Here is the input.
Amino acid sequence: MTTEDMLVERFGVLLDLAQVAELLKRKSADSVRVALSGNTDLARQLLPAKVKIGRRILFKASVLAKILDNSHAPS
Here is the structure.
């Protein structure tokens, strides 16, 4: 089972800020929102996963899975 399969099974195809915060072990959705507003590595990695539907900010599980897989890859 791939990382993407596990994310989709647990959260669905699109994750909201609270779910991303849980996945990244952040304290709250606001901490993810603040991280996205800056020019950090995390913000640059999450930007391609970001989808805006109306006023809601969601993140694609497929892109998040790639981010997680790359962060645990041996250097």
Summary: The chain has a mean pLDDT of 91.
